[in-house]
């Protein structure tokens, strides 16, 4: 649990520029083998063009040819590790509390309390009941910002604290090689909605920061301003695949030498009338209002839609030698990932699963490992009728012959956090690697036809010595993403 004392060093200067603006307005081993294999497979695809990496041996079709171009150091020397994590969820506000609740099979789904939703057909969500920015965000900003930004800022700073990045450690960082890439699917919906309501009276009633505080990039920007980090800084918005896109792109910035440290992940806060109403209009949500803890039930034949969640997840990614030099605790290693597009339908998965299968295959190739080495998968599995089954079929196609494989869905307990889902599930994946325990799938009482439960984690946590773990996230628009973590050795 990150204490207030640990947080204090990050809170005081939060964006002096914006505070001033607010005031003025108010007044007017395993990895060695994996890594080498990964880079060689990449080089096979690039043939002679890839030989521009200094001293790297290019191997193609059994032919070996030495390359001697002294530019960048070989990419395989830049390994990416996870050295800190931060979360804001309905099951906890730090990675250990969050994961302990998952291991116990506790559900964070409950009746919505933030507003009167009695007229809606869905009245349940993975709502965060108690949330405080004290010690993390300046009070004046806390009153003006959208919750997606507040979740992002607190989770980001908690990831730094968890990674042992004190003021003294930060002073040694090259700020030009530290970046922030934390995305959001929906951005500041409440800030924007409040501005529209104010506009009905007069534009003079609008929050002067309604535009910047509603945009998806501003959370990353505000955190970077606060920290003084001048490296890569932007956001990616690919619906519910957002976090994985941000994590993989952050890792690539480190691999290419553009950054040594990256805070990455996602944040969303859409449990508000317009958010609930929008997804109700899509007919995507569960209506199991009388039994909320049973509402999110991936792969169960009685599922009736997903359950909205909210929160944020942030990983502190670091170049291995940089982490070792400062004596950081290394939780896991990021090995690779990939993206594809279904190019099929706005909201429905491709029936043949080709986009998901291609994404997984490319992720394996990028990581330089075989499908047999994957023995844990944190599935996207949202509890929707079509999505769950199509993903399961793709996973069975790719990994079904692996008797060691175990698959689970974190969403069975916290619901679907939209753009934050992948990052929170990445934290769960890293925690599974660290602890040797994988959390249960709750509410899987009557498996869908064709679902082999031997591949799925049961109703209780299970011991698993993870060799390599894959985490999937898919989003409206046909966005597919897969990322891979392994134990650090």
TrEMBL record:
An annotated GO cellular component of this protein is: mitochondrion
SMART domains linked: PKS_KS
EC no. given is 2.3.1.41
Q: Where is the Ketosynthase family 3 (KS3) domain?
A: 77-487
Query: Does this UniProt record's set of keywords contain Lipid metabolism?
Result: yes
The UniProt annotation puts the region (Disordered) at: 33-53
Any Gene Ontology biological process: fatty acid biosynthetic process
Q: Which Pfam families match?
A: ketoacyl-synt (PF00109), Ketoacyl-synt_C (PF02801)
Question: Per its record, what are the GO molecular function terms?
Answer: 3-oxoacyl-[acyl-carrier-protein] synthase activity
Q: What class of enzyme is it?
A: transferase
PANTHER family recorded for this chain? Answer: 3-OXOACYL-[ACYL-CARRIER-PROTEIN] SYNTHASE II, CHLOROPLASTIC, POLYKETIDE SYNTHASE-RELATED
Spell out the family assignment given in the record's similarity comment: Belongs to the thiolase-like superfamily. Beta-ketoacyl-ACP synthases family.
Q: What is this protein called?
A: beta-ketoacyl-[acyl-carrier-protein] synthase I
Organism whose genome encodes this protein: Raphanus sativus
Gene name, Swiss-Prot/TrEMBL: LOC108814756
